[in-house]
């Protein structure tokens, strides 16, 4: 019978953080001087820089350059402990988290579980489409795209061929726009060299957006420019359209129109990932936890939520803050200070979001940016926005080694018009199978 | 019913190459000026630089930096065609290869399928151990090692703890020696920082070699030095020992001794991977195909074999050439010229192996090298050998981008004593499961 080691009880108060996304990482860092135990639990042993996932999925970056091991981030932080585990539920009465590797006592619990892809209850779409929310998704998409073309080489029949060469992206937010742009670059500069036997005039890229404009969180100016760039890159943008069903082959729109594609990329929205055991009254629309201005979950004294999972509903922000990296990081950082204040009996500081703006990149030399600098709005599009986008993302990637590898890949791609990571390694999505060779045909 | 496109018949002779390892790649390149069709078939869409696989498995390099897409290598070679497929058999009478995507006619067939891990018929070991022969293996090993330590944090009981922290490597050739050295570096410089709660004095690394010395293909001098380095790094080397059985937990040696470990790394030998349909008379010991000095398979006019799968048995080389990159590349290159000579009716040139020597690296600043420069032997060990090893391997990696990434990782590791890719992404080996938490225990 195995005795499970405890995380040594040191007599100090224990802060358990569930989830090592932007919010969880910033919180754990900001707790470095805390006279307590900081325990981070995550399903993975690495932090993922989600804003660049789309580049992994389109063969521009290796997965390993945008993730970073937690243990490495915190190797010099003595009060830090990591456990690779899944949280199953929380017992708030006994102050215990139940995980896949046993029970964990806490004094303060911080829920930083983030968000997951929202399929709006459509199980058929969930089964047949590919989201881009984690490294596994991104690699599956990359493998699927490359496999599609390998298969297409064996196909003559027009509709079957189109089903393999055409792509449908659902969701006109930053991820959808960025994937559509990256695919159009691959179509122009990379795939025709790789697959000389295929005619890439046949490759269609569809972007489907439910509302009347792209990039809902951004300015009208940014949205208009993004649409202009995408159309110039040959992406077919469908506004005011929704996907009704998808069986892995036919995308049926609400309007009755049909698009044939074996690959539906789902970037249409996210929903919070709460944990079992938190009272349902604290759960708002979109599965987010209602928190006060100190990120304390409604109804609890010692349970907090930060990042995408937290909805800090105020008059200014009736929907809570946007589900993005910036509010998550700022909340994590402040909560660290507030937890230390709590432990030493000092007053807490209310959260106030410092909106630095947002950005999306569409492709080579083309991005849109709505920035706030010293509280003044600054909007720019095109080459300058693209440079700003690259700079901000580069310095945000964790780890010096990763930053150099990302920079190197970007420079390489820029000057060679190439994307180097065109590798099929690991899982891919197999929708309706391309019919087997029934008689032995010559290839 | 799907019509399979043919690889367009151009009226030119078709050379089908099965396998894109060192031999296959060199052959296809050397056929660039050929007035024929060059078709490469491989199960993967990328070439793997096998000599650095051990660094992927020990978190030193990302997988993506030692592999390279075939289509990218040959994007400027107009007579080149690639198909992602598995070869099932060959019909030598009708000159047709049967593949997972259909039949493929050939005029000349070149078998360059390489070698696979040899478990010497022991299915139990095959099931429970991890080889290091391809990218999938290497990533599985990396994931397993890292997961072991994550699990070890939850274990108190001494034997269970040892089973997770101890490693057994079977095979004292270059791969075994290199993995043992890399693990000892991780034990010294990396793991103690990552897993502060574990005591790495407990981590044992065993290297088991069936013969009386390490590195059989190399000089006595190199073997002695390699042993000395390994022992200095704290690796327990067992000479003249064989593994009798392994159930995923207990390694039983021929001598009756037992070692407890959940991770057995199998680097004990390789065996050829022939394809079905070739007459069995041409198959020699070790599953290699008997070829003449033109790499023609015995008994055929238009079927050739190159690289590890080919045994060119001569008086000089009664066992055929060593199953290494150098003979494979040289055979591939010459066969390309010979095939062009065949097509134009010119005489063929017999193969003669230019042995440039061999090398193995044991760890930081420590390698052994037996080189041949202008037919003179040059043996060196230690720092100089290590520099030569790095230089040769760096320039041999395919692709400028890859070379830079590998160099960057090496420099980074050298100066920081760190290995950056400590990520658990994808599959791992699960041997005897660590007992589940039976009662809910506090961690």
CATH architecture of the largest domain in chain A: 3-Layer(bba) Sandwich
Q: Biggest protein-protein interface?
A: A-B, 72 and 72 residues
Mean pLDDT of chain A: 94
What amount of the residues of chain A lies in strands? 15-25%
CATH fold name of the largest domain in chain A: FAD/NAD(P)-binding domain
Low-confidence stretches of chain A: 1-5
How is the largest sheet of chain A built, in terms of strand order? 5-2-1-9-22
Describe the overall structure.
The structure is a homodimer of 443-residue chains. Chain A is globular. The termini of chain A are far apart. Chain A has helices spanning 22-30, 53-57, 70-73, 123-128, 135-152, 158-165, 174-194, 220-232, 325-344, 383-396, 400-416, and strands at 13-18, 36-42, 46-48, 67-69, 80-84, 87-91, 96-99, 102-105, 108-111, 115-117, 130-131, 167-170, 205-208, 236-238, 243-246, 250-253, 258-260, 263-266, 270-272, 283-284, 288-290, 303-305, 310-311, 357-363, 366-373, 376-382. The first copy, chain A, has 443 residues and is an alpha/beta fold. Chain A has a 5-stranded parallel sheet with strand order 5-2-1-9-22, with helices on one face. The first copy, chain A, has a 5-stranded parallel sheet with strand order 11-18-12-13-14. The first copy, chain A, has 2 domains: 13-117 and 271-344, FAD/NAD(P)-binding domain (3-Layer(bba) Sandwich), CATH 3.50.50.60; 123-268 and 357-416, FAD/NAD(P)-binding domain, CATH 3.50.50.100. In chain A, helix 5 runs antiparallel to helix 6 (158-165). At the A-B interface, strand 5, strand 7, strand 8, helix 5 and helix 11 of A face strand 5, strand 7, strand 8, helix 5 and helix 11 of B.
């Amino acid at each position: 019978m195995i005795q499970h080691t405890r995380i040594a009880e040191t007599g100090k108060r224990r802060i358990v953080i569930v989830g090592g996304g932007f919010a969880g990482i910033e919180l754990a860092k900001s707790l470095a001087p805390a006279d307590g135990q900081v325990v981070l639990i995550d399903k993975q042993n690495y932090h993922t820089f989600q804003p660049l996932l789309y580049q992994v999925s389109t063969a521009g970056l290796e997965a390993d350059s945008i993730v970073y091991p937690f243990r490495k981030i915190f190797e010099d932080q003595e009060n830090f402990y990591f456990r690779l585990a899944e949280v199953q539920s929380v017992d708030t009465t006994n102050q215990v988290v139940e995980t896949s590797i046993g029970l964990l006592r806490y004094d303060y619990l911080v829920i930083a579980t983030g968000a997951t892809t929202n399929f709006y209850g459509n199980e058929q779409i969930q089964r047949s489409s590919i989201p881009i929310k984690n490294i596994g998704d991104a690699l599956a998409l990359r493998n699927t795209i490359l496999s599609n073309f390998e298969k297409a080489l064996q196909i003559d029949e027009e509709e079957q061929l189109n089903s393999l060469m055409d792509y449908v992206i659902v969701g006109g937010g930053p991820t959808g726009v960025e994937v559509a742009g990256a695919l159009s670059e691959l179509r122009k500069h990379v795939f025709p060299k790789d697959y000389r036997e295929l005619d890439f005039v046949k490759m269609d890229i569809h972007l489907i957006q439910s509302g009347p404009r792209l990039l809902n969180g951004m300015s009208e100016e940014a949205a208009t420019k993004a649409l202009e760039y995408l159309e110039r890159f040959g992406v077919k943008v469908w506004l005011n359209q929704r996907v009704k069903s998808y069986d892995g082959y036919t995308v049926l729109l609400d309007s009755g129109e049909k698009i044939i594609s074996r690959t539906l990329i789902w970037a249409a929205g996210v929903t919070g990932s709460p944990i079992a055991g938190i009272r349902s009254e604290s759960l708002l629309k979109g599965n987010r936890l209602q928190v006060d201005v100190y990120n304390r979950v409604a109804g609890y004294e010692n349970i907090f939520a930060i990042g995408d999972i937290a909805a800090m509903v105020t008059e200014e922000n009736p929907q809570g803050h946007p589900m993005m990296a910036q509010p998550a990081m700022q909340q994590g950082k402040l909560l660290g200070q507030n937890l230390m204040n709590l432990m030493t009996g000092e007053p807490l500081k209310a959260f106030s979001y410092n909106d630095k703006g947002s950005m999306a990149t569409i492709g080579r030399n083309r991005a849109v940016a709505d920035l706030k600098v010293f509280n003044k709005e600054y909007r720019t599009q095109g080459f300058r926005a693209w440079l700003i986008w690259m700079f901000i993302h580069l310095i945000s990637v964790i780890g010096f080694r990763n930053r150099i590898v990302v920079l190197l890949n970007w420079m390489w791609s820029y000057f060679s018009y190439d994307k180097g990571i065109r590798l099929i390694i690991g899982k891919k999505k197999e929708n309706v199978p391309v019919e087997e060779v029934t008689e032995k045909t010559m290839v």
